Protein 1
Amino acid sequence: MSGGTRLENANPVIFQRSGERLLTAADEDEDVQDPIDDREIFDLIRSINDPEHPLSLEELNVVEQIRVKVNDAESSVGIEFTPTIPHCSMATLIGLSIKVKLLRSLPDRFK
């Protein structure tokens, strides 16, 4: 605690990170257009830092790949995330962080 700021969840449970996605030759070939899938989206957001802790959203289990829904044909992405505590005051900031990361990383056609 610095400057009188009190953490809402001072001792969060830390989860193990999932392994890195194995890339195939087709994944690395810029001439092959592959669909954007849930793992690709998860890889973009998993390392976002939590606003209150020096931990990632994945390490705090705020985001999980199973809760990422992608419809490449309709250019839509949906993400459900779970704050570490009920009524988390940082939930809006976490949601905005995820949205900004995706807006900066995905083609303009995605909503």
Protein 2
Amino acid sequence: MARVHVDTWRETYRGLMSDAVLDDPGLLSRRERFWAAALTDPQYSQNIAAVASRDGTLIGIAMSGPSLDDADELQQLYVLYAYAGFHGSGVGAALLNAVIDKAAPAALWVADPNPRAQAFYRKHGFLSDGAVKTDDDVRELRMVRAINAADAR
């Protein structure tokens, strides 16, 4: 999972995030520690993780959990990455649906600019709520999906 995380960051964020961060020799070990904690530490027991594989090889990862923001959404998508070669194949949608309940409000942060990812999330009902932050020198927009009783049917 850490390898997929690092590889897809490098594919996705080259030119948006500094090369120093993306090429840091310690990046993989930090992502390994991140995933080890996310999957084993009891404080993260409410998180939901999923992987996608093809022919026994991991090609995508996703994780959600309780909202970390002051947003009304109870769920937050923390991670959703698939190798670029699998974009448009349905892998992203399958991962999203595996970790986010379609019948509940949800939020996520997406890099800006990242028109492909933003279009993907819009297709799945997420809209920008105007919140912006910078993380790892990357500008991010918050997107939310509000679900009302009529939508959940």
Protein 3
Amino acid sequence: MMHMTFYWGTSATILFDGWRTSAWPGYLLSLLALFLAAAFYQYLEAFRIRVKLLAGAKAEPLPPPAGSDAARAPLLAPAAALAGGRWPARVATAALFGVNAGIGYLLMLAIMSFNGGVFIAVVLGLAAGYLAFRSSDGEDLVVVDNPCACA
């Protein structure tokens, strides 16, 4: 039976029929796996941001002459520089984005099991991953596109 409201207990089906828990050891191992997957999500997000920043830093053009239209639109310069030909960096960034989006959606679907422990494990994993991988470098101020609201 699929639950449609949050419930507490060791009996949970997570993501697919083969991942069922019914006793404490399996349930706790599942919560640990979800915690680590959520922390890994934050690690990949931080890594993707670094790759994107490095690709943008390598591709920055020379400053435009004073009074030109490009000087009035500084946010467009890095995107225009990347369009010119940093394909390996763009492909790597796109691949990391895809993997990270997939993990984010799987974490969301795991939470949709409506098990309270699963919800807490994923949220704590995201918070611990953010603390470990993203909170100290100031890169969280960079606006990046993110398909999932769980980051």
